[in-house]
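Budget justification aside, the reviewers requested a transparent look at the raw inputs and outputs of the sequence design task funded under Objective 1. We therefore reproduce one unedited record. The lines immediately below are the structure tokens for a 299-residue chain.
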């Protein structure tokens, strides 16, 4: 007998806390929240500290009607910590840490940037901690972003499975992604900057269960796009574990989904989440700008 799949329950705690500088309205039971009553450039140092605490709690935050300039975006993101060097994209002129993610209305591509479940650049030895994203222009529908709560997913594994995972190291590499992108585009593997490509292919080994440096919360460090193996295991041994963990983590109960409006800003904590942007808005222009904050070595 197999047990039928039942929806997780009993450990959903996305309720808002009280903050002095803004209010917070949860988006879904699993994660995500809207921050109301503040414009990001006006946040005091105390407000910034509260925003970080709210981000660690809800894992994804968003604010409406911000309409930030590149300079305002860059300045806000710099208050989250030093910028990361992005593995894929380049900044806009004059703002090298504000990176465009733009899909034109007439562009049709099977391999959209960020189109599969992933956490940002986990193949790096020190993957980014926080990502911010703002919309300047977007489709009337579609072009959402989805996130999943990898800490909640970890807590919803049996104790036996949790104990088995602690101590394992996951190999994160861009090899499968590079090969898939090249195949979809009908091109040879090639990714601009040779040293970035080499680092991406080689990848890094990280704890499969990581501990958040600010909150102590344990979280699965898993990724559909970049997890390619587990240290000490054959690929035949590792693949079913990775596949199970990805499917477990992306089940609807653990997710939230944001419908963008121009002027919105979202931010998420890569240390406890995966995300993706569905490739579903052909015929409409989507203009986004992103920053990434440096993270330490996952522990
Ligand atoms: C990303 O993966 O960082 C981009 C997600 C999106 O464009 O919605």
């Amino acid at each position: 007998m197999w047990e039928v799949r039942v929806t997780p329950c009993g450990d959903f705690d996305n309720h808002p806390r009280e903050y002095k500088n803004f209010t917070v309205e949860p988006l879904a039971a699993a994660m995500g929240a809207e921050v109301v009553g503040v414009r990001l450039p006006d946040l005091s140092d105390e407000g910034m500290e509260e925003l970080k605490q709210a981000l660690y709690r809800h894992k994804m935050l968003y604010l409406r009607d911000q309409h930030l300039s590149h300079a305002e975006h860059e300045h806000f993101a710099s208050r989250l910590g030093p910028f990361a060097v992005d593995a894929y994209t380049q900044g806009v002129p004059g703002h090298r840490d504000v990176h465009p993610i733009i899909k034109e209305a007439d562009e049709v591509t099977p391999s959209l940037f960020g189109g599969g479940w992933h956490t940002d650049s986990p193949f790096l030895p020190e993957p980014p901690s926080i990502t911010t994203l703002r919309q300047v222009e977007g489709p009337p529908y579609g072009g959402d972003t989805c996130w999943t709560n990898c800490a909640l997913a970890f807590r919803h594994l049996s104790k036996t499975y949790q104990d088995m995972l602690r101590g394992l190291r996951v190999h994160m590499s861009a090899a499968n992604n590079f090969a898939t992108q090249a195949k979809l585009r009908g091109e040879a593997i090639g990714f601009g900057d040779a040293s970035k490509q080499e680092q991406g292919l080689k990848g890094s080994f990280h704890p499969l269960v990581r501990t958040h440096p600010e909150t102590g919360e344990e979280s699965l460090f898993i990724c559909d796009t970049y997890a390619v193996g587990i240290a000490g295991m054959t690929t035949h041994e590792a693949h079913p574990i990775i596949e199970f963990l990805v499917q477990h983590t992306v089940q609807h109960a653990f997710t939230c989904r944001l419908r963008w409006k121009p002027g919105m800003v979202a931010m998420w904590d890569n240390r406890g989440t995966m995300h993706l942007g569905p490739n579903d808005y052909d015929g409409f222009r989507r203009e986004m700008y992103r920053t990434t904050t440096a993270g330490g070595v996952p522990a």
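The mean pLDDT is 95. The helical segments are 45-58, 70-78, 150-155, 159-165, 175-185, 194-202, 235-249. Computational costs for records of this kind are itemized in the attached budget.
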